[in-house]
Write the structure tokens for this entry.
Amino acid sequence: METSNRFPAAAAIQRRASAELQASSGLRTNTARTVGPVALVVDDEAFVRALVAAVLRRRGWSVIEAPDGPSALAVAPQALDLLVTDYEMPAISGVTVAEQLRLRDDRLPVLVLSGRPDAAARMRGLRGPRTAFVGKPFPVEELVATIRLITA
């Protein structure tokens, strides 16, 4: 299925994110000094990672990107305002990444993304008012609304 069909309203963001993606080795941070809230975006699908990062940057977030769980844990800053992670990744799942980062800050807002229909039910103890799940594919508006909800 073509990407523009899988992610409604994302075609323009995809074009902008593709330039970032070409230069990306998978692990990215903002090159400018950190301003505003800081988000860590973890997904082994480069397009999804770049899309989410672009959406957040357009809304004033400083974004750190990681292609997998071990990289995410290695680069996660002590002060983090949001984690957006894929549910299922090689080596370490997104739920495990979230659990590890919540040991530092149990109030960390966590958004889990997945194309698996059963992922929301399998999130184990990762629950609470600052935790949400969005199924892939997703409209950008749903992503933005969910982030607003859990970071309010």
User: Anything to note?
Assistant: The chain has one domain: 3-151. The first strand starts at residue 28 and ends at 29. The beta strands are 28-29, 38-42, 62-66, 82-86, 110-114, 131-135.
